[in-house]
């Protein structure tokens, strides 16, 4: 139905998933607050979380906006 859908996750080698959910939500919210569409915000959050799980730690794993924007799918 309207408003429902699926988005394929990015394939990465995860080393620590501690902050993955928080990073996704933060990236999604930041993108929406910047005017991104729902799909674009989901993609931004996914890219942010994908970067996060490739790093150790919580706060130290959260990527910058520039790092997220440098990822292409």
Automatic annotation (TrEMBL):
GO terms for cellular component: cytosol. PANTHER family: RIBOKINASE (PTHR10584:SF166), SUGAR KINASE (PTHR10584). Residues 7-65 form the Carbohydrate kinase PfkB domain. The keyword Kinase applies. This is Ribokinase. InterPro entries: Carboh/pur_kinase_PfkB_CS, PfkB_dom, Ribokinase-like. Keywords: Kinase, Transferase. GO terms for molecular function: kinase activity. It comes from the Bacteria.
